[in-house]
Design brief:
This protein has eleven helices and seven strands. The chain starts with 8 loop residues before the first helix and ends with a strand. By secondary structure, the chain is of the alpha/beta class. The chain has a seven-stranded mixed beta sheet with strand order 3-2-1-4-5-7-6, with helices on both faces. The longest helix has 18 residues. The protein has one domain: Rossmann fold (3-Layer(aba) Sandwich). α2 runs parallel beside α3 and α10 packs antiparallel against α11. The model has no long low-confidence stretch (mean pLDDT 94). The chain binds S-adenosylmethionine. S-adenosylmethionine binds next to α4.
């Protein structure tokens, strides 16, 4: 198997479990590797199948924020195993879809998982979100589902998106967004913890105010700011239950501690989960 230029132990683990044919991992994380969205969180069943459906719904919520429709050229940055591209391929027609990822192992998996429907085209590209290997004004839509916190720099990413979007095009993303007053605690935690642990390098230090400033600096018009924290909370019960039952193996201590910490700050609404979208002016 090819190696990865990024250190994301959770992906190493998921890839191992997928290769071993682990049924719970295949169901829960074989297509999307992100949190779930439950319209009514009280109805969550905390099973791999329920999580699979909720993860699919989160993808729909994100691409809806970019007004994706038939006949568009769409770039999905940090495309994981190609789940968002697969959903777009299933839902829309006349699409020119590109999935970009820094990890060739995930792209191998995406190529195996997703076949373009006759009216659509799909291209998989290895690359860095902050140095997009595409000409100016080449996409109608750019998506980044739950991955921007891994990128080297949000501002560079936004600059690159502004460059590759056509005038009038949209960017939609989902991200963990802390309350501004809680930022010093997160910054202190980041300074003290040398080892990025199970979830790898993650910068969760961008408040909604910082996003607004970034958009204003780059001339993006903010389209949607949607706090969906409450709709994602069953994710934590699922991950914790799966870890305890060893359905999803938390092989590292940091897998459990980091997951419990994110669960706590999310339940206390200190760190929110947001869908954000922006339009490049005409
Ligand atoms: C939580 S996963 C989300 C995957 C996918 N978007 C999904 O929703 O299933 C984060 C993704 O970001 C990718 N990634 C991390 N750093 C990246 C970078 N600098 N450029 C491109 N992709 C990156 C990882 O390889 C991984 O696929």
């Amino acid at each position: 198997m090819t190696s990865s230029p990024v250190n994301l132990p959770y992906f190493d683990r998921i890839l191992q479990l997928l290769a071993a044919g682990d049924p719970a991992t295949i169901t829960a994380f074989g297509k999307h590797v992100h949190w779930g969205y439950w319209e009514d969180p009280s109805q969550a069943k905390h099973t791999p199948e329920d999580f699979r459906q909720a993860a699919e719904q989160l993808t729909h919520e994100v691409y809806s924020a970019a007004l994706v429709g038939d006949g568009q050229t769409v770039l999905d940055v940090g495309c994981g195993f190609g789940g968002t591209i697969a959903s777009l391929n299933e839902q829309f027609t006349g699409m020119n879809l590109t999935g970009l990822n820094i990890d060739p192992r995930q792209l191998d998996q995406a190529r195996q998982n997703v076949t373009a429907r006759p009216a659509n085209q799909i291209t998989w590209v290895e690359g860095n979100a902050c140095e997009l290997p595409f000409p100016d004004a080449s996409f109608d839509r750019v998506l980044a589902v739950e991955c921007i916190f891994h990128f080297p720099d949000r501002r560079q990413f936004f600059q690159e998106v502004k460059r590759v979007l056509k005038p009038g095009g949209y960017l939609a993303l989902s991200d963990f967004v802390p309350q501004a007053w809680f930022l010093p605690v997160i910054e202190l935690n980041a300074t003290l913890s040398r080892d990025p642990g199970f979830y790898g390098h993650s910068n969760v230090q961008y408040s909604i105010e910082t996003y607004r400033q970034l958009a204003a600096d780059l001339g993006f018009q903010s389209h949607i700011e949607r706090d969906i924290t409450a709709n994602t909370l069953p994710t934590y019960d699922f991950l914790i239950k799966s870890g305890v039952k060893k359905e999803i193996d938390w092989s590292q201590w940091s897998a459990a501690t980091q997951t419990l910490l994110i669960a706590l700050v999310s339940r206390l609404h200190l760190v929110t989960y947001q869908i954000l979208s922006y339009q490049k002016p005409e």
